[in-house]
Design the sequence.
């Protein structure tokens, strides 16, 4: 296993900058998730680590070796593709064996290694089948077995779960986490699914438009998003955001929003006053909003979505886009179309500069 | 009751089906089935030595005679040799060019155009080009200072080879296009997976690319063999079956029997033979090759 370092890596396709000055260190045995919407450059970044794309600028190192000019086959990595990319003309066993065969592992040693990988992924009974004769979930396991049969320096995974149905995805997600812990492997995992990112990664690196937005452990990214993009991308349902302006001083500081004035502690007020144009975006996660007859925010219930264990009360505040309040199922259910008042938990308020999107940190 | 209605409806639908098939069946009958059967029938009659005399029914005698003659066996040998010279080489060269052109390089479109350009070249043009190139007086060879007497096209040793080279060149464009489309149908991710899995270019080609390309190769072998067995134009324009019948492929033998010898019966028998040989060859190829061909999922 090894650490992987990206040092000011840029990739341009003609006029399009797919990855822009990306610097990232993936620690040995770390499970790092590259997260972002489609087209954000995460897959390109992964493909550069694999050697399937060249770098326009920068440097990539795997272990102690700079690999910019190293062929994919000599990088000592394994990759799981979104489409699995199994060899359709080979049996499952041959597919798993292929990386060993490519690297000239002597035949007698290959058999036990294939068996071991197949056993680890529950494929022992399918070894003689062709990929077309096994299910989607099983194909995905074959791709994983092919990756783990050799112990590479790092595993690269490009949306490996996105072709699975929802139920299988949840199950395989847990199995992948377990596998990574068991193999003690360095994994770089690309996904657009923030739930996968939150649940699987030791750290998440969030990208947008080719630019790295934030890197950190899932919980800290969730609790302290570095900017509006991250705030809105992480979390399901996403963070509510409304426009605001800071008024007053000291203990009388309030944020004026279309729904009403939210009193905030002086520290937050001071932070809000650092906004470049004086305008801020107030972010509150759905679980930090509650229905309170004395709350400062006036809202209109648009729709109520019931999920069994909880419900999402989708409200309209002024002309702002919808905000969502997360409620436990046993709380009183408001009527659709009714007016109500909301209160945001004080430590659940995030502030962002309306012009730059950057987080404004509460001042002590 | 229901069963009767079911069968009635089926019959009505079958009637409608045949009605819709009728136009193409009619065309096929007039231009394919009838001439084919008529040709088979013609083989039972011996053509008289002088025009005007009546034809004589000889049953299978003429078939036996012609098919055991050295004229036919020589022609068969030449045809098979011609196919062996042209088909595999054409496919391999087409594949090589396709692999060269299947790269993302600046100006690769020009190469693709050049490689596929012989598709737009007719057999006649190709034959004239090579006929001129190989001409002992004005061709490429005397220009290079190579004297060829007798000329290559009149040399029993090299004539068939020269015709084969012309054919390969002329078919190369099509072979290139077929192989290119086959290569492009292989998903990039599978090739990339094999790169990441550590396969060098040799292993990748023989264990991944070629097996995935095998349906295309199979198609090219079958169609290429049929085309080779039916080649005529280049023979007619370059060698007229000579020298010493060394390029007298079956189609040209049929043509000579019909036009040169005015022997309809012999030509009919040779035509049936060509049909049967092509049929057997194709069935054999289907049986043998298909077992080794991988069709993707």
Sequence:
């Amino acid at each position: 296993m090894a650490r992987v370092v990206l040092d000011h890596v840029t990739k341009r396709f003609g006029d399009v900058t797919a990855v822009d000055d990306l610097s990232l260190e993936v620690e040995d045995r770390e499970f790092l998730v590259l997260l972002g919407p489609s087209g954000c450059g995460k897959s390109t970044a992964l493909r550069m680590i694999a050697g399937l794309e060249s770098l326009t600028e920068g440097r990539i190192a795997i272990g102690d070796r700079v690999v910019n000019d190293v062929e994919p086959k000599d990088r000592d990595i394994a990759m799981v593709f979104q489409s699995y990319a199994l060899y359709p003309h080979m049996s499952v066993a041959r597919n798993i064996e292929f990386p060993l065969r490519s690297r000239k592992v002597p035949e007698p040693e290959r058999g036990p290694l294939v068996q071991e990988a197949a056993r680890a992924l529950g494929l022992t009974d399918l070894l003689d089948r062709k990929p077309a004769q096994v299910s989607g979930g099983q194909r995905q396991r074959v791709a994983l077995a092919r990756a783990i049969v050799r112990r590479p320096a790092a595993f690269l995974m490009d949306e490996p779960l996105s072709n699975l149905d929802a139920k299988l995805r949840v199950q395989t997600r847990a199995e992948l986490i377990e596998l990574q812990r068991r193999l003690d492997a360095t994994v770089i995992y690309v996904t657009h699914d923030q739930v996968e990112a939150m649940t699987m990664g030791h750290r998440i690196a969030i990208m947008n438009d080719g630019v790295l937005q934030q890197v950190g452990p899932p919980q800290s990214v969730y609790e302290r998003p570095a900017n509006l993009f991250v705030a809105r991308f992480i979390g399901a349902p996403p963070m509510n955001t409304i426009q605001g302006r800071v008024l007053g001083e000291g203990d009388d500081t309030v944020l004026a929003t279309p729904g009403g004035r939210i009193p905030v502690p002086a520290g937050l007020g001071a932070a809000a006053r650092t906004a470049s144009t004086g305008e801020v975006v107030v972010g509150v996660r759905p679980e930090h909003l509650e229905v309170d007859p004395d709350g400062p925010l006036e809202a209109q219930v648009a729709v109520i979505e019931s999920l069994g264990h909880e419900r999402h009360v989708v409200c309209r505040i002024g002309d702002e886009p919808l905000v969502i309040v997360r409620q436990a199922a046993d709380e009183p259910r408001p009527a659709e179309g009714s007016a109500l008042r909301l209160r945001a938990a004080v430590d659940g308020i995030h502030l962002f500069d309306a012009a730059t999107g950057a987080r404004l940190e509460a001042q002590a | 009751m229901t069963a009767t209605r079911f069968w009635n409806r089926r019959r009505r639908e079958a009637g409608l089906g045949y009605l819709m098939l009728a136009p193409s069946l009619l065309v096929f009958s007039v231009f394919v089935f009838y001439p084919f059967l008529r040709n088979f029938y013609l083989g039972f009659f011996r053509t008289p030595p002088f025009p005007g005399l009546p034809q004589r029914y000889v049953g299978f005698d003429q078939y036996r005679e012609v098919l055991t003659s050295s004229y036919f066996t020589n022609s068969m040998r030449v045809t098979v040799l011609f196919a062996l010279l042209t088909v595999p080489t054409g496919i391999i060269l087409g594949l090589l060019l396709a692999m060269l052109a299947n790269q993302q390089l600046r100006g690769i479109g020009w190469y693709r155009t050049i490689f596929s350009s012989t598709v737009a070249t007719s057999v006649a043009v190709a034959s004239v080009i090579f006929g001129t190139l190989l001409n002992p007086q004005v061709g490429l060879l005397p220009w290079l200072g190579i004297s060829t007497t007798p000329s290559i096209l009149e040399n029993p040793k090299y004539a068939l080879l020269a015709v084969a080279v012309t054919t390969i060149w002329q078919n190369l464009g099509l072979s290139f296009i077929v192989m290119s489309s086959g290569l492009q149908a292989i998903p990039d991710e599978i090739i990339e997976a094999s790169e990441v899995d550590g396969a060098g270019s040799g292993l990748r080609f023989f264990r991944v690319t070629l097996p995935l390309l095998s349906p295309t190769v199979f198609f090219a072998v079958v169609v290429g063999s049929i085309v080779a067995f039916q080649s005529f134009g280049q023979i007619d324009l370059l060698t007229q079956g000579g020298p010493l019948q060394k390029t007298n492929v079956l189609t040209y033998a049929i043509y000579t029997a019909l036009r040169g010898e005015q022997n309809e019966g012999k030509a009919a028998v040779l035509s049936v033979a060509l049909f049967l040989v092509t049929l057997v060859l194709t069935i054999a190829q289907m049986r043998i090759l298909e077992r080794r061909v991988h069709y993707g999922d």
Q: What stands out?
A: The interface with chain B takes residues 50-52, 71-75, 77-79, 81-83, 85-89, 98-99, 101-103, 130-132, 146, 156 of chain A (CB under 8 Å). Chain A has nine helices and 21 strands. The first strand of chain A starts at residue 4 and ends at 13.
